[in-house]
Amino acid sequence: MDKGQYDEALRYLTEAVRLDPDYVEARVDLGAAYAKTGLPEQALDQYEQAFKLEPNVPVLHSNKAAALVILSRWEEAEQAARRALQLDPASIDANYMLGIALMGQGKITPETAARLAVAVKKHPRARVYLAEVQAYLAAERRKQ
Questions:
Q1: Which of 28, 32, 65, 70 could lock onto 80 through a cystine, CB 3.0 to 4.6 A?
Q2: pLDDT over threshold 90, residue 1
């Protein structure tokens, strides 16, 4: 997957899950591969299976939030990202997903800006979103 060979990763990860249905890491990676190949519903299926095995894995909640963002299921994405942050407050990915989920709901607040500010360390697009949020908040302050 690190080399962008998602179809091949799908093949290997599907086999790994077939051989060991309780292999949580393989399910997490398989879900991520599905999301990267434009199959977010299949990704969610893998994440739900993994939750049954290990409900408190932060990356699992963050990845679920990402799949939900792809599907524009903003409120659910917000819930998943918030859960990821409860489990790992320093998660850059969870901060990014929460910022995106809040934006998707039209919740342009200082919290949205703060979440995206954390995410710029890893996600280049977060910088663009952060600028939009900051501009909106500045315009709202000028109106008051």
A1: 65
A2: no
